[in-house]
Records
---
Amino acid sequence: MLLKDFLRDGEKALEGLYPAAEARSIMLLLCEAIVGTKSYTHIIEPSFTIPHKDESTLLEALRRLSEGEPVQYVIGRTDFCGNSFKVTPDVLIPRPETEILCREAIRTGSRMSASRSAFGKDAQPVRILDLCTGSGCIAWTMALNIPRCRVLGVDISDAALEVARSQTFPGSAPGQDFRPPVFMKADVLDPETVFDGGPFDLILSNPPYVMDSQKAQMRPNVLDNEPHLALFVPDDDPLKFYRSIAAISHEYLAEGGEGLTEINDLLGKETSEVFSAAGFSRVSLLKDLFGRNRFVSYAR
């Protein structure tokens, strides 16, 4: 089977689910993950033949894709902040918006770490709490990018925590100051939950924030495949996670510490008011790549 023919047939099979350009990108990503080809292989090598050993795997993968399963679940990995993360249907697929949160947090955490470097070996590591960790993409990104930091990631889902703990990064060479995150099961909404390792210099979160009424606006590949536990909140109480995050931050955020959480862009003002009412300073809204209010930052 020629690669160019498989790509053509695959795009046709997906045309009812995705725009043409996205369908092509999905097919190229699939072939790169399974066969090892590049996005241009079918162009510069029009006679490239897919190895026989990969044919059945590709055809089964295409069947799953044509039924609406996201390509990230089909190949089992996704790129995020320069690393390849394991993903399964038990966790959300990390989004580009969350990369913005991580970049902001890395800048803040690195600044904190640098300010302590004068203390040498006695310098206290930057301590980070990642609430609703899911795949662990935020927790691991912090650990890989902020020297000597200590990261605690928490989630209510045992299956998600299994994914987070199992992350590996082939080809990545963490520095000698690297410490892997610690993960624990915890219900963010339970006021009796105790978080070990505090106080924390950074508290980060990408909690569920999509209102049930927004389901109708979501594409089937997301709605039918990604875990609803990590996505949705009831319309009559869409800010419940943020009230809990504010309460946890009030208890566990160190003096001079900062928090950053991803939010529903329709509820920017209301979400920021939750943190202002909790007594935090420098509460502000940050925008995503499309100019929408996507994050709330706050400080103690």
---
Amino acid sequence: MKFARLGDPGREQPAVQPGGADSNGKWYSLAGLTADIDGTFLEAGGVDRVRDALAAGNLAEITDAGALRTGAPLARPGALVGIGLNYAGHAAESGAAVPEVPVVFLKPTNTVAGPFDDAPIPPLSGKYDWEVELAVVIGRRTSYLASVGDAADCIAGYVLANDLSERDYQLPGAAGQWVKGKSLPASTPLGPWFVPAADLDATDLRLRTWVNGEPRQDSSTADLIFDVPAIVHHLSQFMVLEAGDVILTGTPEGVALSGRFPYLRDGDVLELEVEGLGRQRQVLRQTAAL
């Protein structure tokens, strides 16, 4: 199944598309089952209830779905957690050592945007960069997991994420300022779909990025230094993870920071794809200083 939220910002309606042999390209409304796709829906067994409703033919088609904006497939999460330098190639192009433990940072949840919304470049930005990522959605409240093997029960599913990053804000100085470089408006496009964990094997998914049609990133989640269960287990030792929280698992090599490509500029068209999770497209728009 694919879950989406369709409509204008702040007025999105939850929707589902059947998977497998039942997929027909149509979107069905979740009205009556849930007001939104969020942590409450996930923790209360919402995914299974939707499966049952689809099987019973109880959901109404959204006949104008193709004319509606696609929002982020999850309502604003309680936490947005990033993992840095989680592909060896990206660590190398960043001039950093391969980490021995996950590098963790937080992003404000108000950075979440739709997958096709325009992406604003900050007024003073000179080094705005792209990062295609597999993102993990937490399905139930958890902390202090006893083992990596326990992590699977906490994962509701997956989404495609873009962790847009301003490198001049993020990296200069002895300590660096990762939060400053990764907290900018609309800098975390999510979607277009949320796919339940039962419907997708995330261990070897191809990730790709293009700028103005030219390839940039091309890798696989099989190359993650710390895989999804290891990340969830590690984070649970240091924070409470709640249903609806989103974890960005890191980006592979091929970003502008490498020095091989120019940074993003006004009018650039950025496209990102994770196998099984759809494709994003953002037009970069320079933001004027007030």
